[in-house]
Each structure stands twice: as structure tokens, then as C-alpha cells.
Amino acid sequence: MTVHHLLQINSVLNTFLKEIRDKTCQKDSMRFRRNIERIGEIIAYELSKDLDYKNEEIETVLGIKKSATINTNLVICSILRAGLPLHQGILNYFDTAENAFISAYRYHPNKDENFEIKVEYFATPSLTDKTLIIADPMVATGKSLVTVYDAITKYGIPKKIHLVSVIGSKEGVRLIQNHFPENTDLWIADIDENLDSNGYIVPGLGDAGDLSYGVKL
Asked: What is the pLDDT of residues 7-33, one digit of tens each?
């Protein structure tokens, strides 16, 4: 797996990451969602450099111009619900992409810090021989992405996989590196050092789903 850690080079991305981490800015859920969407757009632009292109001729009012256009069959899959703003940011740049949605959540059978990942819903087009983009804003333990990948590949094997995330932990990144196939790229804005005892990223930003859409039961 190739890891693209985007914050290693300073850009406007720094501003959006600073704001989504700031507990004062987080009180504005609309701004939080919009910043996640903007980060998705930035990552989509960087990811687009890795896609296949073909030359097409277009006719202008004054002549003919050859133009390189994307020649990759894309499917964007977001992990509900936190992945939705990130999904929209990616889709803003890949107009013709197909879309998939999968639910994955932490289930605590013993009401303690130990958990397993449950997947209960998946809607997707065919994935066979397509380029799959999985949008998951937080890679904490990495277990969600591993479980989602195992569920998804029952519906076809993609030609290429791109994982798109906002913040991850070093531990979570290591786990997915060991689980996903070689033809996988991880595009991640920033990587934090640690997880706490509950498996949340430190310093991280909190629960991206709750910050986007409100606290759940």
C-alpha cells in the first residue's frame, strides 16, 4: 500500500484541518460538514493525478483542441454516517462516478471499551474491474475499514482501491497496510500518534458523525 500523507506539505488544507479539530469551531456543525467536504475535494484533486486518462478532441468556436480526460470507471463508497460529507467532496470532483453506501459501527457487547465492527447495510453497483474509492473520515483502530473491505469484496474485486480519510492513527494505518492488497493507495490528510483506551484518536477531533449530524442514541 502507498500512503499519501498530505499534511507533510503545507497548503490550504492546514486551515480546514485546524478548524475541524478546534472544539470552538466544532460548535458550528454546518461549518464542520463543509470543511470535511472541502478536504474531500482537495484529496480528490490529488487522487485524480493517479487515474487513467485518454485524449479526446473537442470543438471550440474557433477550432479543434485535444484534451486529456479521465478514463477510469469510479465507484465512491462512503461508510455511513460520518463518511457522507467526505463522499460529497469527492463526488464534487468526479461527476460521473457511481456511488455505494455501507453502514459500519462499533458494537460493544459487554458495555465496555472492547468492541467489534458490525456491517448491516450495503448498496452498491458492480465493483468488478472498477476503481473503488472508500471514504472514511477517521482511521482510528482501522477495524472499520478492514471489516468493510471484507464485506465489499463479496460483491466483486475492484481493479484498484483508493482509501480516503481525514485523520488516522499510526496504529490504524499499520493495520490497514497489513490487510489491504498491494494495489491500494491511502490518501490521508493527517496522521496522529496515539489511541486512547477506548480506541479514539488522540488528539484527533472527536466523533466525526456526531459533529456532522448530532449525537446518536
From this structure: 999 999 999 999 999 999 999 999 999
The grid coordinates of residue 10 equal 503545507
Q: What is the DSSP string of 159-194?
A: SEEEEEEEEEEHHHHHHHHHHS-TTEEEEEEEEESE
Q: Which amino acid is at 32?
A: F
Residue 123 Cα to chain centre, angstroms: 17
Asked whether the beta carbons of 150 and 161 are under 8 A apart, the reply is no
Q: Give CA–CA dist 175/142, Å, rounded.
A: 6
Helix (H, G, I), strand (E, B) or coil at 183: coil
Pairing state between β 122-123 and 98-103: antiparallel
Please give the backbone phi and psi of residue 137, each rounded to the nearest 5 degrees, phi first.
-65, -30
pTM, rounded to two decimals: 0.93
